[in-house]
Structures
1.
Amino acid sequence: MSWADDGETVIKSRIYASEKELDEFYARLKLTPCPHCNQTGSLIKHGFLRGYDHENQLQKTTRAARVFCSNRNRASGCGRTFSLSMAERIRRLFLGAESLWLFLQLVVSTGNKLAAFRQLDGPLSDSAPYRIWKRFVRAQAAIRAALIPLCSPPVVPSGNPESVTLAHLQKAFGGQSLNPIAAFQAKLQTFFL
Ligand SMILES: [Zn+2]
């Protein structure tokens, strides 16, 4: 099992493709080694991440939760926590992976960030599309580096770097039940942005 590191807070995180997978993880909690101290038997549920619902008001069925390696009541864990995230969730963003995928595709095809964002039908601040786009542009090198072991980048005639990255995602993860961004996060256990 691999773990994603949350760059901001340096919390280890496990990314789940579905609620079913998350429930299965919970069911095996007592048999699962802690990602910090590698001990088995001391993991317990530790509530949901705060602000999650607020940040993800456009998403339908997503949760993120914390797990605690208990050192209380004579438990011998390390006292640290880690988080469980759903692949549909994008860190520090109120858009889910599906909406983000749609937004990025629209920007690449139309060149108009604001118009693309308005099609998402969500709470809107006029600076949000530019911020989100900038995050994507900054993340591109890491996204491509993660995709290359899966498949070679497609040839996009006269494509700009952004359209090549999206086409690469589509090539690697198109045609699955998850959208390519959620599939990227679940398969690679790393955050897209
Ligand atoms: Zn531990």
2.
Amino acid sequence: MKIPKTLTTYCPKCKTHREFTITLYKAGKRRGSKLGERRQAERKKGYGGQKFPLQHNQAKTTKKQSLKLSCKECNYMMQRKGIRLKKAEVV
Ligand SMILES: [Zn+2]
């Protein structure tokens, strides 16, 4: 699906309609030094380490892709609800 680069919608910070630039949300880089990662590493240590079942058979064939909007005036960032798409493209 092709998504336009800009969109006009309500900005809660400016309190009026403003033009927003659209980018696709991407998960951040995983860092081994962060608390959650350290905690999980500690849980997995030793005999019988895996603490919850890993999912192997995925029913879904697509991933939800959410849009990241940022206001051109005040740089306020917000996200749109994810929609299931095979391929999202910002044009
Ligand atoms: Zn704004």
